[in-house]
Amino acid sequence: MAKLPPYLSTPERLWHYGFRVLCALIFFFLIFPLVVVVPLSFNAVPFFTFTKEMLALDPAGYSLKWYENFFSNLNWQGAVRNSVIIAFFATLLSTTLGTLAALGLSRPNMPAKTLVMSLLISPMIVPLIISAAGMFFFYSRIGLQGTHLGVILAHAALGTPFVVITVTATLVGFDNSLIRASASLGASPTTTFFKVIVPLILPGVISGALFAFITSFDEVVVVLFVGSFRQRTIPWQMFSGIREHISPTILAVATILVIVSVALLVAVELLRRRGERLRGIQET
Amino acid sequence: MAGATQQNGDVLVTADGTPLRISLARALRRQKIRALFLVAPLFLFIVITFFVPIVDMLFRSVENSIVSEVLPKSTKLLVEWDANGNALPPEAVFAAMVEDIREGRKNRTITRVGQRLNYETPGMSSLFRSSGRKVKRIKSGPYKSALLKANKKWGDIETWKLIKQFSTNYTSGYFLAAVDAKKKPDGEIVRVDEDARIYIELFKRTLKLSIIITMMTLILGFPIAYLMAILPTRTSNLLLIFVLLPFWTSLLVRTTAWIALLQQQGVINEFLVFAGIVHTDSRPQMIHNQFGSIVAMTHILLPFMVLPLFSVMKTIPKSYVRAAVSLGAHPWLAFWKVYFPNTVPGIGAGAILVFILAIGYYITPELVGGTEGTFISNRIAYHISGSLNWGLGAALGVILLGIVIALYLLYDKIVGIDNMKLG
């Protein structure tokens, strides 16, 4: 942190530090709940609280049994499998459709662009409970309620806005003369697409795909309505776990998920930097 | 291309002789079609998986065909009957009703009529269930006295009025129920009894809690967005992680964390007891009430306020405030008169985003809200999976959707949908 200029008055200095303390408290509020679940998940007793042994750093107060439970319990393992399957196919679907649409939307002569864009990203704006209710009504009419396919389609619909937005953002700085250059050098449109366009928009596509993946992976409202026990995902299992019998296994799962989200955060940030470097945008 | 065009009188033409203007228009149209082709698959997909379900919900909120479907003969005859007169329907209607109930019992649909009418007047469910059982003993007429013997409610003119009222294919009944009103059989709209009015109250509470949560995120989000905006990029990027990490973490993880913190034997209460601030017998109740909902949702939605605020504040040149100060303004005045007005677009964007998200929240209030901290969405979920009154759930959903669309249009006016940014 830069040194304070010498001409500041005492109240100004006090404000300078006071403001930073205030901000530190707010950052603490943001991060503390995530940090606190980590030690609690190593609890030896089935409560959500720090025991005396834990505070005394006594090894007897800590245990890995909740992690063991997570990895051995069939309900949880089924949930992991469902989560991965559903998120994978939903991501595949929403990334493919979303990238194509973003390419179309970014063309200079796309008609009714604003209207189409706002329709395409509306699944992100409509409250989940309404989407879930509507999908429940309609999918049960056509027999998709309680099937993997139903949940995958629903999650793909929820994930596409993120893909459309991130890929469109990547295409904002896109230099169209590159396509003309490629064409003038004799490349077919297909070659141009795979050799010129795809490498340039790939970071945007991947980060859009990550958004879509995390949307599906985290989503619980739609799974609760469109899915059934056979489609239970990790959040579904956590939700029913919290409502029925609260056990620190949920905290162990939470810890694993925090680690997954840290990894995703790093991945998205690296992709963003790489994308900007590739397109020649200087960090400001 | 210059070589492809040639002068032909006044009109520029291309190599094949078509005027350049037409040829260009044709090329433009081709490009438009190509762009549309790229968008079309997603558009169709969203229509089928998302818009049709929403439309289906709209339809369910007014749909009412069950009574006339299960009781086709008697409802047809009831059209002729004058509901405002004081006489029971004629014998023919009773005969048709006996037939309809017998048929409905065979198809196992009769209880659904009872269930439907029970939403309007309690007691209807048992009327149809008991009549369904007794109707097979009615061999021959007169059907009126036979049906009256089966259940004396058939002698009540209100029963018939109710059946006539709900034998139309569409109804405003669910929407009226969603705003604590009902239509009397004679068509007058009245408010329901005092102790049955819950939805207006729930809508008010949802709005109140959403406003409180939006204010809280603004109060907490503004200082940290400002700090990140005035610090050098390297430091602010580091601080941004503190905002993005919760943003990326599963909603259920964050809700679980607040349960661990706030509950009676939770971390905060244990700490307060340990520090001697409260006695172990008088631990404050911090969860399963409005306080729990507000704290947890403020934490969960805070990143949605900070990110738009930060992206707006980053673009405000520092020289503005310096200029104001050098012209003699007190730093506070410079902040208030120069810096703050520049942040208003960010405040608007963040506030509407948080408000829209808060108003439709379901999971967190369900788990930490108890009974007094729940939202309208919890009631929608209850009607869909608990009480199975789908029509009412759909009507509540449509009203909520209306509120959200209005806010969405407002958001579009203030920031523009295109300017939406993530991360």
Key features of this structure:
heterodimer; A: 284 residues; mainly alpha; MetI-like fold; 13 helices; B: 423 residues; 3 domains; two-stranded antiparallel ribbon; 19 helices; 3% strand; flat; disordered N terminus
Explain what this protein looks like in three dimensions:
The complex is a heterodimer of chains A (284) and B (423). Chain A is globular. In chain A, 74% of the residues lie in helices and 0% in strands. The model of chain A has no long low-confidence stretch (mean pLDDT 87). Chain A has 284 residues and is mostly helical. Chain A has one domain: MetI-like (MetI-like fold, Orthogonal Bundle). Chain B is mostly helical and 423 residues long. Chain B has three domains: 2-60; 66-171, no CATH class; 199-419, MetI-like (MetI-like fold), CATH 1.10.3720. Chain B has 19 helices and four strands. Chain B has helices at 20-60, 66-70, 72-78, 91-106, 110-118, 124-134, 143-150, 157-165, 173-178, 199-230, 233-248, 251-262, 267-274, 290-313, 318-326, 331-359, 363-368, 376-385, 390-414; strands at residues 6-8, 11-13, 181-183, 189-191. Chain B has a two-stranded antiparallel sheet. In chain B, a hairpin with a 2-residue loop joins strand 1 and strand 2. The longest helix of chain B is centred in the first third of the chain and has 41 residues, at 20-60. The two termini of chain B are 44 Å apart. Mean pLDDT of chain B is 86; it is low at 1-5. Chains A and B meet through helix 1, helix 4, helix 5, helix 6 and helix 7 of A and helix 1, helix 10, helix 11, helix 12 and helix 14 of B.
